[in-house]
Records
---
Amino acid sequence: MKKIFNYSFLSIAFTAILFSCNYSVKTEKSTDPETHQTSAESKSDCNEVHWSHATGESGPENWKNLCDGYTACGGVAQSPINFVTNTIEKSDSLSPLNIIYKSSKTDIINNGHTVQFNTSGDNTLLLGNKEYELKQFHFHAMSEHTVDGYHYPIEVHFVHRHSDTDYAVLGIMYEEGEENPLLTDYLNNFPESKGEFTSDKTIDLSKLYPADLGYYYYSGSLTTPPCSEIVSWYVLKTPLQASKTQIDKFSKILNNNYRPVMPLNDRKVYGY
Ligand SMILES: [Zn+2]
């Protein structure tokens, strides 16, 4: 995997997944003349940057210019991508996904960019001998990855960490169908704007993925700033289901929080 990655942004990389940018900053910036005078200075401080999935200055096309720590967003190994199913190759080095999920306390955050479950407890993804610890899972609507150009209505990302420069993200699509048990339990608790919901209720994480673990694999990046190219992507071929009512309600909360697909460039996608 290419590592166009600046180590000084390590902490940003992970906090950016966990926390949102500060929306109040934008208001301050646009009304405070002093801030304008120090724009070069503020460009180096990514914590104060407002980014979004909308079109315009804060949107995906311009993420790479928003601050020095986001230059990877203009890199050549970015995510998400479109999977062209008739070009996907087999690889002998891939192995079955060994997902060892147990349970987690309920800790749901709407950070202004996504609805995210912060997980606790001993939940891992084992790839060969390498252990990746589940940190959180969050959702996008529509899906970020596409399959032969098709967007599923929702995609969930299970974010696992081995080290600061080595993440594995498991992507699973949702299609319209039966009611989804996780959404049945929690959709009414999702904060509709920035906010948090916690309870003592335990979530059985082993029920959150399909039985068939066939996947597409490629090397890519975080799909939100700082877009660090540190992610091994495993996107399952088999989608989960959610009812139309659930998808409609959830999509409204997520509000088109997907990054458009990025060029594959010289990378290859492998199937298992
Ligand atoms: Zn994501």
---
Amino acid sequence: MARGSIWLAAAVREGIRLVAGTSKERRVLAACVDPRTRFDQTAEWLVACFGSEKWFRSYVRCAESAWRATAGGGDLALDRRQKILAGLDVSRCRGVEIGPLHAPIVSKRDGNVLYVDYTDADTLRRKYANNPIVDVSQIVDVDAYWGAQSLGECLAQHAPVDYVIASHVLEHVPDLITWLKEIRAILSPRGRLKLALPDRRYTFDYLRRESQLVDVLNAYLLKARAPLPIAILDYILNTTAVDNVKAWTEGVSPQREAGRFESALSAARDAIKTGSYHDAHCWVFTCDSFKTLMADIADVGLLPFACDQYYDTELYQIEFFVSLRPCDDPKEAAASFRSFLGAGR
Ligand SMILES: C[S@@+](CC[C@H](N)C(=O)[O-])C[C@H]1O[C@@H](n2cnc3c(N)ncnc32)[C@H](O)[C@@H]1O
């Protein structure tokens, strides 16, 4: 993937909204319209984005952020994919990508990969139809649905697999511990789970508190198969627009957005009454809080993984990357996460 598309993908992932546009930003966007990118091939889509000034500015600011980050000549797109796929040759093994949506890390051309989501592609296309940052024509077909059934049940004869990739998915899952256990159950002993995760400090989760052991234990004990009312309430009430470049440089003081109380209550009531799936960021991390949380889960004997690679959030970026390997020794698992502590800001 070329640089331009990853700049836009950064906006896609986090939907950062901005409050001011400048002529400089417009010049940056011009640079970001790179003839090598797949987004550039859908000029109509970009033009449609211009129709919404709010999102137009979002793309531009993300592009500017990425430009600065790669000013030394690095290729952010390659870096991101390389970090996720480090140590894997996807052309030679069999894997699963969870929640690829419109931006799979591994394409069907790259190797033997199955796409898993909580619902089918048509439902996802309808859900994102009016979302200006998701190109619905790029949403890939889903091979297996994970939700009511366990991951092992939905993959049946396809397991075990050599890797599982989940880019900006884990923060959405209702029961983090069971999610990890179910992935462990379909991985081969030398398999890897590769995660890309948003860092609260640079995204719309800015105002939310970081998830703690008690939060994940609560969801685990309740056997949540859809986001819990408390996650839905926190997500709707407390997400807010954040300029990620300013969050890295001069700092930001975002305000809670008013007028969300009714929709938050209505969604939470519906979840309680009907058990419906209301997608939300159920979990909130920084690159260091995630290490501590995983170590805490390992300490209580509920984490079937150790950490073998960690890429902290880089300057002007909004995400960090973690590679997990199967591990049944709680002490080893906890120590592996704690050994990476402190490297993140
Ligand atoms: C924010 S999108 C990430 C898209 C893409 N991987 C990326 O990095 O831009 C989250 C994806 O995860 C899927 N998802 C959310 N909760 C899920 C769950 N519990 N199980 C499987 N997929 C889920 C969503 O439907 C969506 O496709």
